[in-house]
Amino acid sequence: MRKKVLYLGHEYHIKTQSTAFLKELLEEEFDVTYVSYNPYNKRFDSDGQFSKDIIYDYFICFQIMPPVDELEKKYNYKKGILFPMYDATIGLGDDWWEQYRNF
After folding, report:
1. What string of DSSP letters covers 29-45?
2. What pTM, to 2 d.p., does this model score?
3. Strands of 31-38's sheet, edge to edge?
4. How far apart (Å, rounded) are the C-alpha atoms in residues 66 and 48?
5. Please, what's the largest Cα pairwise distance for the chain?
6. Rounded CA gap, 92 and 74, in Å?
7. How many Cα atoms occupy the beta-carbon half-sphere of 19 within 13 Å?
8. Which pLDDT does position 29 carry in this prediction?
9. CA separation for the pair 79, 56 (Å, rounded)
10. pLDDT of residue 2
11. Which of 11, 34, 49, 65 can bridge 38 by disulfide, Cβ–Cβ 3.0-4.6 Å?
């Protein structure tokens, strides 16, 4: 049985397809569910489409960093993996990073 991955990416990447290669690589090994996030209006494209009954083995946040408590309200996952974007993280203090301690 293949492991389940929930992939959270920037909404703009849908238009640019700049991360399509990552999706292709992940799909070779995992069952992948995609969610996009718009950091400007703080909306997920999947609001209401997921069940907390689905337990993902991995939750990948690629260049998107919503508050972890918000993620945990929406999704059920065993292990989080964070790929922050440098220019989005400049000036974030220790308090912000603390919430991602278990990623």
Report:
1. HSEEEEEEEETTTTEET
2. 0.82
3. 43-44, 31-38, 4-10, 55-62, 76-83
4. 17
5. 42
6. 24
7. 21
8. 96
9. 8
10. 94
11. 11
- Which structure tokens are listed for 27? 């799909």
CA-to-CA distance for 19 and 16, rounded, in angstroms?
8
The whole-chain average pLDDT of the chain stands at 84
The two structure tokens encoding residue 80? 């989080």
The type of residue at 30 is: F
Q: Which two tokens stand for residue 12?
A: 């703009």
Q: Which two tokens mark 4?
A: 């389940």
Instruction: Give the C-alpha distances (Å, rounded to integers) separating 10 from 50, 67, 86.
Output: 18, 15, 14
Q: Find, among 52, 9, 59, 61, the residue nearest to 30 by Cα.
A: 59
Q: How far is CA 83 from CA 27, 35, 62, 101, in A?
A: 18, 15, 5, 13
43-44 and 31-38 beta bridge pairing: antiparallel
